[in-house]
Specification:
Elements (H helix, E strand, L loop, with lengths): L7 E7 L5 H12 L6 E5 L13 E6 L7 H11 L3 E5 L7 E3 L3 E3 L2 E3 L2 E3 L5 H7 L1 E6 L3 E7 L13 E5 L2 E5 L3 E8 L17 E10 L2 E6 L27 H15 L5
């Protein structure tokens, strides 16, 4: 909880196959624009106890899924009115499905599958990652629902992994995109219907809210080891002014209702 009028932020950045260092620094810089905040960093949810005094939770993770006591703590955090910003792989739980495959020189133990193994966590978030197309530029546009976070935002381009998501429960889709194509390396795909694809989703849980932002991929030169020795650096949308401004707006949303 806010102590001496200083809101507590829990920043969880951890997992695999992404440039966690780049994203952690970017998020800390944006949080640093609010001098009153106290920010605590962690690689995962730990035992969940840190959420007891947290006002705003940010997660940029991949295959970091709380269960047991930490999951109960996450639900309690939301039920009492906490706000949670989850970015990109925070909706993902993946497993490899043999036999081994070679995808453009990336040697995987199998195709990437996304079994529904953490339904209680995904229910709190309101979305579940299913698959993605090859990284490419695409346009993000306003969705069917309106919210102060996206008020006045014009369509903008990102270079990212176009995510295919399953929506869970009641949600508001604030940003969306359209894309079709193959899903190299994934069990599920291709995706050929020209449907609107959610990019920013608001989900309410108890007195709290979870905001999920699908774009956010970043991968450093060595982040895909042991599957490939090195790859060209992929900064993703973190070098886009429009995307960074959106994350800035989401941080302002996250701390808006924190008591002084």
């Amino acid at each position: 909880m806010a102590i001496f009028g200083r809101p507590q932020v829990e920043l969880i950045v951890g997992g695999e196959n992404h440039d966690m260092n780049r994203v952690r620094v970017s998020l800390l810089e944006l949080l640093g624009e609010h001098e009153l905040l106290r920010v605590r960093c962690a690689p995962d949810f730990g035992d969940g106890s840190s959420l007891d005094d947290t006002d705003f939770l940010i997660t940029y993770t991949n295959n970091i899924i709380p269960s047991g006591t930490p999951l109960v703590a996450l639900e309690r955090f939301l039920d009492r009115g906490g706000r949670w910003l989850a970015i990109h792989g925070a909706s993902a739980l993946t497993r490899f499905k043999p036999p081994a495959v070679d995808i453009g020189g990336i040697k995987l133990p199998g195709l990437t599958d996304t079994p529904d193994l953490a339904p209680d966590y995904m229910r709190l978030l309101g979305v579940r990652f299913v698959s993605h197309l090859a990284q490419q530029p695409y346009m993000v546009t306003p969705g069917p629902d309106r919210h102060p976070v996206t008020e006045g935002i014009a369509p903008f381009e990102v270079v990212d992994e176009p995510y295919i998501l399953e929506l869970l429960g009641d949600n508001e889709v604030l940003l969306e995109a359209r894309y079709t194509g193959d899903a190299p390396g994934y069990v599920k795909g291709p995706w050929l219907s020209d449907d609107p694809r959610p990019q920013l989703v608001l989900h309410r849980q108890g007195a709290g809210e979870a905001m999920y932002l699908a774009p956010g991929h970043a991968c450093g030169r060595f982040d895909l080891r042991p599957f490939i020795e090195d790859i060209p650096v992929q900064p993703g949308p973190w070098v886009s002014d429009a995307y960074v401004d959106l994350v800035r707006r989401l941080i302002a949303w996250g701390i808006e209702k924190v008591p002084a």
